[in-house]
Design goal:
flat; Immunoglobulin-like; single chain; six-stranded mixed β-sheet; 664 residues; LysM
């Protein structure tokens, strides 16, 4: 019983203490007191450099308070520094830049006295309590908010399935800031960090070279863009300041899902029959081994898409899936006669995708066939790479230097030749090809070249491999049954024509091709003709030289010009007009001397006789320090193009001091 009485008394006593304490807080009439205040710097500047651009203010009070500090200059100029406008706190910590919120301008320089204006929860106030002073100075050399100190790796090669960071961007903030970093290409954001508030000082972020979702990106240059909002303003801004502060290049990265992975996902595809009569339909199927988002196309032998025949709206489960094709393109037109393949587009959850052509083709018969001109006439691609407008519906495809296309029509239309490639009709720009003189080079049976294995290494392209092995992209594609829309894989083995070294005879010397060499340059060096080089080395005018290739130089040439005769060997890009201009003759005189007419085409390596009666003496000029082609051309009242043509110059290479140039 006594225990119960003691418990009741204790509860009543504690209750009285709580009531007493509440009444005391409610009836507190004492103003709050500042116990301590510290400044990170007593001298600052707006966007400072020699002095800080902001100050951190820490203030402690004896009870929870809210309010502001007033900075007042002797002439009355003043500004508020908000501590807390809503919450009551005993410890206040704020970052502040010297900014006039009303005038929207930096505070003028001078010494500012600091006074507190605080309220407690009982609305008691401490007004004008002095807590120190702050000196604001003018900064003649303001510091940038963000400075990029380094990018650890400026060129990266992301690979499918590898997500580790490939580069690190280290940057410095001069003031507290909310930062968001974006990676952009052509002003399109492909990767972006979240917004984070960061302190002044050294910061960094890492990137794996992929999109925000982890998708593969195409090779190219990407901008590093900083989006910032300063947080040390009295009333922080809500709009971002955007600055491009660096570049990162993706080179030789996986731009699509590798073929090895695609083959794991899509294992097989088949048509129910090997042929399809025009105007009928055919059934087909694909087999998948993994869950995937896919889309199935019927494609031409060139890889262009005829039609979409299977497009599930959800992820496809492993198994065999059937579909059919009505033998038409996307516009409802019947397919031309030829071979057609099953081509599958595969996408993963990140957005990375790739194409794989699977199974044997179906051959469409009984419809329309596009055939080349007879006798066959061809053009050869002279540009490093150019686009085709290919069947069906003028889809894009690419061809490369050295590729040969058969003409469908002799005369171009609107600047394009109509051609066939792998039996597929297309159009190619006239400016990117040259006519092959098929009449001057009668076709003869050619033995299949001996081939050797070549293993693809990092950085390889079809063009590089073709150049390295003295062959053409078209030869590589045909020999290996490649799809030019599908990238090469490291470790992939290709069959390439085997290089055969010509053993020099007592009347021959061997020359190793150097960077920048052409048949014309080598012929000039050894005082032989291009035709001599072609004949001895069993080359044709369509063959391209590769660095390191060995050529036999004959010491006895088969063609010697007459004593007063000039022979010119046609180079890529030459026209009768250019050659006539170079030698000071007319196009008509060139045609007459060489039995040409207005419809005749020039071919690379072709020899032309220059009329000797019209050959003019010319002057020379020796290059001195500070010369440029423009200066020399201007001084001698000629054009830069004339200097280039007369002297067989390469505009990508500088002229050398002491070099002798023809100038008229």
């Amino acid at each position: 019983m006594k225990t119960i009485k003691h418990a009741i008394i204790t509860v009543l006593f504690l209750s009285s203490l709580v009531i007493s304490s509440t009444v005391s807080a409610a009836t507190d009439n004492e103003p709050p007191e500042v116990l301590n205040m510290t400044l990170s710097s007593t001298k600052i500047a707006y966007q400072g450099n020699s002095v800080p651009g902001f100050v951190n203010i820490s203030l402690e009070t004896n009870e929870p308070t809210r309010g502001y500090i007033l900075a007042v200059r002797d002439d009355g100029v003043q500004a508020k520094i908000n501590l807390s406008t809503t919450d009551f706190k005993t410890t206040h910590s704020v970052n502040w830049v010297p900014w006039d919120d009303e005038k929207k301008a930096p505070l003028p320089a001078g010494t500012y006295r600091l006074k507190t204006y605080l309220n407690d929860a009982a609305y008691n106030s401490a007004q004008g309590f002095p807590v120190g002073q702050l000196v604001i100075v003018n900064e003649t050399n303001p510091k940038s908010l963000v400075t990029v100190n380094s990018i650890s790796t400026t060129t990266i090669s992301p690979k499918y399935g590898v997500n580790e960071a490939l580069t690190k961007v280290t940057y410095e903030l001069s003031r507290p800031t909310e930062v968001q970093i974006a990676i952009k290409r052509n002003n399109e954001t492909v990767y972006q960090t979240t917004k984070t508030k960061q302190d002044a000082g050294i910061q960094s972020f890492e990137w794996n070279g992929k999109s925000t979702k982890g998708a593969l990106l195409s090779d190219g240059e990407y901008d590093v863009v900083f989006k910032t909002i300063e947080t040390a303003y009295n009333y922080p801004s809500t709009s971002q300041t955007i600055q491009k502060l660096g570049n990162i290049t993706i080179n030789n990265g996986d731009t699509s899902i590798p073929m090895s992975k695609l083959e794991e996902i899509v294992s097989n595809a088949t048509f129910e029959t090997e042929t399809l009569e025009s105007g009928t339909s055919i059934s087909a199927s694909i087999t998948t081994k993994e869950v995937a988002n896919i889309r199935v196309y019927i494609a031409t032998e060139l890889g262009t898409h005829m039609n979409i025949v299977y497009a599930p709206t959800t992820e496809l489960q492993p198994g065999t899936h059937t579909f059919s094709w009505d033998g038409k393109d996307m516009m409802g037109s019947k397919a031309l006669n030829g071979k057609y393949f099953i081509k599958v587009s595969v996408a993963d959850s990140t957005g990375s995708s790739g194409y794989i052509t699977v199974g044997n083709p179906v051959t469409v018969t009984g419809g329309k066939t596009i055939v080349p001109l007879q006798p066959e006439k061809q053009v050869r691609v002279t540009a490093a790479k150019t686009g085709l407008q290919a069947y069906p519906n003028s889809q894009g495809a690419e061809v490369y230097q050295g590729d040969v296309l058969s003409l469908v029509a002799l005369e171009p239309t609107d600047g394009y030749y109509s051609v066939l490639l792998k039996g597929v009709p297309a159009k190619v720009k006239v400016a990117d090809v040259e006519m092959i003189n098929t009449e001057a080079t009668p076709s003869v049976p050619v033995e299949a070249p001996t081939t050797t294995n070549y293993t693809v290494v990092s950085g390889d392209t079809l063009w590089k491999i073709a150049s390295k092995n003295a062959t053409t992209i078209n030869t590589l594609v045909n020999t290996n049954n490649l799809d030019v829309t599908i990238p090469l894989n490291i470790g992939q083995v290709l069959q390439v024509p085997k290089l055969v070294d010509n053993e020099p005879t007592p009347e021959q010397v061997t020359y190793v091709v150097q960077p920048g060499d052409t048949l014309w340059k080598i012929a000039q060096k050894y005082n032989v003709t291009v035709n001599n080089l072609l004949e001895v080395n069993r080359l044709t005018s369509s063959d391209y030289l590769s660095i390191g290739q060995k050529l036999v130089i004959p010491t006895q040439v088969s063609t010697v010009p007459e004593p007063n005769q000039t022979i010119y060997v046609v180079q890529p890009g030459d026209t009768l007009w250019k050659i006539a201009l170079k030698y000071g003759v007319t196009v008509t005189e060139l045609q007459s001397e060489n039995n040409l007419n207005a419809t005749s085409y020039l071919s690379v390596g072709q020899s032309l006789t220059i009329p000797t009666k019209m050959e003019q003496p010319y002057s020379t000029y020796t290059v001195v320090a500070g010369d440029t082609l423009w200066k020399i051309a201007n001084a001698h009242k000629v054009t830069v193009q004339q200097l280039v043509d007369w002297n067989q110059l390469d505009l990508a290479k500088p002229i050398d001091i002491g070099q002798t140039l023809r100038v008229n």
